[in-house]
Write a structure and sequence with these properties.
Elements: E1 6-12, H1 31-39, E2 41-47, E3 50-51, H2 53-62, H3 66-69, H4 85-91, E4 97-100, E5 129-133, H5 139-147, H6 184-197, E6 205-209, H7 241-245, H8 249-257, H9 276-306, E7 313-319, H10 338-341, E8 345-348, E9 359-365, H11 369-376, H12 391-395, E10 406-411, H13 420-424, E11 432-437, E12 441-446, E13 452-455, H14 473-489, E14 498-501, E15 504-507, H15 512-517
Parallel strand pairs: 1-6, 1-7, 2-9, 3-10, 4-5, 4-6
Antiparallel strand pairs: 2-8, 7-8, 10-11, 11-12, 12-13, 14-15
Length: 519
C-alpha cells in the first residue's frame, strides 16, 4: 500500500485559459504553476463541458456530458445513480478527501423536502470526505475566521468590501477588508496542509479546491496592487454593447440582465456599463487573485518537496469554467463564447516525464479528468463515461484517431437568481444549447432559438454569425450533423452492451480505439 501514488487534484474557480503564463500570459507571475507546466503537460485546447459551477463540476467529477448527468444548472439535483470520481476511487482502496466544494444539489429521492441542503446553491458530492468544507454558505470559512479572532461584521460578506470608510462598492484599486493571512485562499491552503501532515506516510487523494479567482473581484493586500491596469489585455468587444446584442436573443438578454452586484459586493448597475478603464482594473484584480492562489500552491508544493512526496504525486491542475471578464461586454460564465468555456489543464503524473514542458494541442475536455486519474491509479471508468484517459498524451503526441472537435453545452432555464427562460418566452426544456467546435468553425445549436455559425480563421472572436449566409449553408448543415452525431454516439449506454442469449447474459466489450475513432 505504501507504494501507491498520491494524487493532488487542484480545482480553481473561474480561471480562464488565457490567464496562464505558459500559454502566453506573460503579464502574470505564477512561478509555482510555471513549475508544474515545466514538469507536466499543458493542454492548450481544453474546455469545460458545461457552465456554470454545478454543471461544470458534475461533468468534471462524473466524466459525463451535461446531456447525460442532467444536473443542468446550479441548484438542479444530480441523479444519485451516477457514479463519480470519489465513488470510483473508493472501489480501488482510496479514501478521497475534498477541500472546497462541488456545488452539488442532492437527489431529492434520497432525502426529504425539509433537508437544508435544498436551501443552498449546492452542497458536497457523495463519495468524497470533506476535510475543509466551504459549503454550505461558506460557514466553514467564516467559522475559521471567527476562530482566528477576527471580528466578523454583521453582514459577513462585507469583508469583501473595499478598505476604507469612504470606499465605494464596485471596481476598485483598493484592497478588501480581510488581510491575505485570513483570506479564503489561505483558509483552503491551511486545510490542505493540515490534511497532508496528518497522513503519516499513508497514500492519499486530495481534491484541493480554491474559490478564487471567482468574484467578488477584490483582492487582499498586497495582491490588489501587484498588477497595473495598463498592463492588462484590453477587452475584446464591439464598440457598443447594443451592437453585440444584435447577434442573438440570448446574448441580448444577458447584456441587459447581468448586474455588477454579482461581481463586486454591494455594487449596482449593469455589467455592460463598465468602460475599458474599469475592465482593465478588474482584470488587474483578477490577476492578483491568481497570483495569491499561486503563492498558496507554493506552500503546498514546498511541503511535498520537503517530505519527499513531489515525485510520487500525480498533480492535476484545472478550473471548473472560465470568465468573460468584460469580453463581449459580459461578466461571468454564460452563453457560448470561448472565454466562458476554455480553461487550464496541466497534468504531471508521477514517474512520467517524456513530454515534460510540452504544450499539447489536441482537443481535451473536462470529462477526460476522471478517466485520466483512474487510469493512473489502476482503476477503470464506468462504461457510460464520456471522457478518455489522457495518459497516452503524457507519453507521446495524440493518436490519429483522437477526437477532432470540442463539445460543450449550456442550459439557461430559470433558476431563482436568473430568469432567461421567462425573458425569452421559452419552455424549461427548450432553454438549452450545445456547441461543436474545431480549429476552423464553431456551430452553436439551440433547442428553440436560431443557430449560430462562426468562421474561426477569419473571425476568431466570433462577432459575425454566418448561420443564415447562403454561402455557408453546406457547412452549417455539416456541423449541425456533427452535433447530432455527437449526441447520438454519447447517448446513455450504461447497459446497452449487455444482451440476453439462449446461453444466458452476454457482455459485449468494445475496443477503446474503436470508441475513440467514433468521436
Amino acid at each position: 500500500m505504501s507504494q501507491r501514488k498520491n494524487v493532488l487534484l487542484i480545482v480553481v474557480d473561474q480561471w480562464r485559459a488565457d490567464f496562464v503564463p505558459h500559454l502566453g500570459a506573460g503579464f502574470l507571475r505564477t512561478p509555482n504553476l510555471d513549475r508544474l507546466c515545466r514538469e507536466g503537460v499543458t493542454f492548450r485546447n481544453h474546455v469545460t463541458n458545461a457552465v456554470p459551477c454545478g454543471p461544470a463540476r458534475a461533468s468534471l467529477l462524473t466524466g459525463l456530458y451535461l446531456m447525460n448527468h442532467r444536473a443542468v444548472q446550479n441548484t438542479v439535483p444530480l441523479d444519485a445513480r451516477h457514479s463519480n470520481l470519489g465513488k470510483q476511487l473508493r472501489e480501488i482502496g482510496y479514501d478521497p478527501a475534498l477541500i472546497g466544494y462541488t456545488t452539488t444539489t442532492p437527489d431529492p429521492r434520497t432525502s426529504g423536502p425539509r433537508d437544508p441542503r435544498f436551501t443552498t446553491l449546492g452542497d458536497l458530492m457523495d463519495g468524497f470526505r470533506s476535510v475543509g468544507a466551504f459549503e454550505p454558505t461558506m460557514d466553514g470559512y467564516f467559522g475559521w475566521l471567527a476562530h482566528q479572532g477576527y471580528a466578523l461584521p454583521k453582514r459577513r460578506e462585507d469583508i469583501w468590501l473595499p478598505e476604507g470608510e469612504d470606499a465605494v462598492p464596485g471596481v476598485t484599486d483598493r484592497p478588501c477588508r480581510i488581510p491575505a493571512s485570513l483570506s479564503d485562499s489561505t483558509y483552503f491552503t491551511e486545510r490542505a496542509l493540515t490534511y497532508l501532515k496528518g497522513r503519516n506516510g499513508k497514500p492519499w487523494f486530495l481534491h484541493l479546491g480554491y474559490y478564487r479567482p471567482h468574484p467578488p473581484f477584490i483582492a487582499p493586500a498586497p495582491y490588489h496592487e501587484m498588477y497595473a491596469p495598463a498592463d492588462m489585455p484590453a477587452p475584446i468587444r464591439a464598440p457598443h454593447w447594443e451592437k453585440e446584442a444584435e447577434q442573438h436573443p440570448l446574448l441580448r438578454h444577458y447584456l441587459r440582465d447581468i448586474k455588477q452586484g454579482s461581481f463586486f459586493h454591494g455594487a449596482g448597475g449593469a455589467a455592460s456599463t463598465l468602460d475599458e478603464g474599469a475592465i482593465r482594473q478588474m482584470r488587474a484584480t483578477y490577476a492578483g487573485l491568481i497570483t495569491e492562489i499561486d503563492d498558496c500552491l507554493g506552500r503546498v508544493f514546498a511541503w511535498l518537496d520537503e517530505n519527499g512526496q513531489w515525485e510520487e504525486t500525480m498533480i492535476v491542475f484545472t478550473s471548473d469554467h472560465g470568465e468573460q471578464l468584460g469580453d463581449h461586454w459580459l461578466l461571468g460564465k454564460v452563453g457560448y463564447f470561448d472565454e466562458s468555456f476554455r480553461i487550464p489543464l496541466v497534468v504531471k503524473d508521477a514517474g512520467r516525464n517524456l513530454r515534460a514542458g510540452v504544450i499539447e494541442d489536441a482537443f481535451t475536455e473536462s470529462v477526460d479528468v476522471m478517466p485520466t486519474i483512474l487510469d493512473a491509479l489502476g482503476g477503470s471508468s464506468p462504461r457510460n463515461c464520456d471522457g478518455h484517459s489522457l495518459l497516452p498524451l503524457l507519453d507521446h503526441a495524440a493518436p490519429d484517431d483522437w477526437r477532432d472537435l470540442l463539445f460543450y453545452e449550456y442550459d439557461f432555464r430559470d433558476v431563482h437568481y436568473s430568469k432567461p427562460e421567462t425573458a425569452l418566452g421559452l419552455g424549461m426544456d427548450e432553454s438549452a444549447l450545445c456547441v461543436v467546435q474545431d480549429a476552423s468553425y464553431k456551430y452553436v445549436h439551440f433547442a428553440a432559438l436560431p443557430p449560430l455559425f462562426f468562421d474561426l480563421k477569419r473571425d476568431p472572436h466570433q462577432f459575425t454569425n454566418l448561420a443564415e449566409d447562403p454561402a455557408h449553408a453546406a457547412l452549417v448543415k455539416e456541423y449541425a450533423q456533427k452535433a447530432l452525431s455527437k449526441r447520438m454516439r454519447h447517448a446513455e449506454r450504461t447497459l446497452t452492451h449487455f444482451r440476453a442469449t439462449p446461453q444466458g447474459l452476454e457482455e459485449r466489450l468494445e475496443a477503446p480505439a474503436l470508441r475513440r475513432a467514433a468521436e
